[in-house]
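ok so i was messing around last nite and threw this chain in just to see what happens. nothing serious, just curious
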Amino acid sequence: MGTRQRKVHTQLDRAAVQIFAVNDRMNQVLIEHLDATAWRAKPPGNVRTIAAIFTHMHNVRTKWVRLTAPHLNIPRQLNRAHCTPQEARVGLAESAVRCAEMLAEALGGSGGGIEKFRRDGWAAPWPVGVEMLCYMLAHEAHHRGQVCMLAHQLGFPLPSEVVNGIWNWEKLWRECGSSGGPGCPL
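result:
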């Protein structure tokens, strides 16, 4: 691998790690500001509770790590029926670290052992690449949207500054330890 290719891989893996940290910070912000009553409130119809959505997000992350990078420390799964907001926050933080390690290894071009992204047992594996990160982010953004909508529908809308705050990437980027923002050297 040439110097230019190594530099691109190094930049991509560092950016992917930071982007996934910001992604997890968005989840943490929502849980921090969610009315406690909304956590287990049962939506009408056959719909997951907010607790079940966040535990699903964590449990899917653990599956991605288990199937794609089984040599990493795989976080324990959460029980959606009994998980508290604090347990979800701790679990999500841990699974975010493991996903970041997986992304760094897969996208870093360091010759790590990760060659395929395995989303699920039923899905064909993909070669590692930026699509892996995009898939992971899309999955989580979808569920964050569900959480915001459910909280509102159940009568526990999140404050505007919270809903708008998850779009303030510069602030989230700093909260995750970067002095710059998106596009700045890491």
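not much to say yet. Residues 30 and 162 are 7 Å apart (CA to CA).
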